[in-house]
TrEMBL record:
Organism, scientific name: Paenirhodobacter populi
Function: Specifically methylates the N3 position of the uracil ring of uridine 1498 (m3U1498) in 16S rRNA. Acts on the fully assembled 30S ribosomal subunit.
Protein name: Ribosomal RNA small subunit methyltransferase E
PANTHER family: 16S RRNA (URACIL(1498)-N(3))-METHYLTRANSFERASE, RIBOSOMAL RNA SMALL SUBUNIT METHYLTRANSFERASE E
Residues annotated as domain Ribosomal RNA small subunit methyltransferase E PUA-like: 15-56
Taxonomic path: Bacteria, Pseudomonadati, Pseudomonadota, Alphaproteobacteria, Rhodobacterales
Length: 234
């Protein structure tokens, strides 16, 4: 379980009402149960339930179980698509190891509104599911042009676009550093956006092969390829 409190030997940790409900009512656990806890800073700790109420619970940290493992400094910029597929994108980006997830509005973005809190909850669930010790921040929707207007150029952007068929071997030539992957919406990027992206010195265009992938597939493929080339978990 992810908690927002310090973890350490003998440390008492309180559960949120939702966590207490899940653990005691849904999972039917109670005092004495051992639970894995993480907070994104102190690694994984094994803790024991020391008190269990209807909507409350306290655990006591017993032993350090695993070191803190953070993903590489990779961000995902993606244009939200339909609800379930947007949820899928956030879930997979959290599992595959993105440090930050930024939904962006583009010319052909299907959905101009997102539920940031819902997406953040998906990222958290995904981290718990894969026994990660890090939950990426999911930011609110921001127009791509506005975001890139204030972009700090040390973070290079890997722009995936299906119009770039043939540019396949780009990944192998990338150098380490802070990166962001940019994936477009169902309708892809507009010609205006393409011309504008080509002008940005910090943008590297990349092809993911000769087929037009669904946006959610493109997210998984791009992150995986980047991780295989440059991923340094620490
Ligand atoms: N209409 C489909 C859908 O509903 O998902 C396809 C959408 S595709 C245009 C969405 C995004 O995936 C593109 O903007 C691009 O970022 C990425 N993408 C898809 N195929 C790609 C390819 N072969 N190479 C690079 N990027 C690709």
């Amino acid at each position: 379980l992810h908690v927002d409190q310090p973890l350490g030997q003998g440390q008492a940790v309180s559960l949120t009402p939702d966590q207490a409900h899940y653990l005691f009512a849904v999972m039917r656990e109670g005092p004495g149960t051992h639970v894995a806890l993480f907070n994104g800073r102190d690694g994984e700790w094994t803790a024991e339930v020391t008190s269990a109420g209807k909507k409350t619970g306290v655990l006591t940290c017993l032993a350090w179980a695993a070191p803190q493992l953070n993903p590489p400094d990779l961000w995902l910029l993606f244009a939200p698509i339909k609800k379930e597929r947007t949820d899928f994108i956030v879930e997979k980006a959290a599992e595959l190891g993105c440090a930050r997830i930024l939904p962006v509005a583009t010319d052909y973005t299907n959905s101009q509104r997102i539920r940031q809190d819902r997406l953040q909850a998906h990222a958290l669930e995904a981290a718990e599911q894969c026994l990660g010790t890090y939950v990426p921040e999911v930011t609110d929707l921001v127009p791509l042009k506005k975001l890139l207007a204030d972009w700090s150029p040390e973070r290079r952007i890997l722009w995936a676009d299906e119009s770039l068929v043939g540019a396949g071997r780009v990944m192998a030539g990338l150098t380490p550093g802070p990166w962001a992957i940019l994936i477009g919406p169902e309708g892809g990027f507009s010609e205006g956006e393409r011309n504008w992206l080509r002008m940005k010195p910090f943008v590297t265009p990349v092809s993911l092969g000769p087929r037009i992938l669904r946006a959610d597939t493109a997210v998984c493929a791009a992150i995986t390829l980047w991780q295989a080339t440059l991923g340094d978990w620490r």
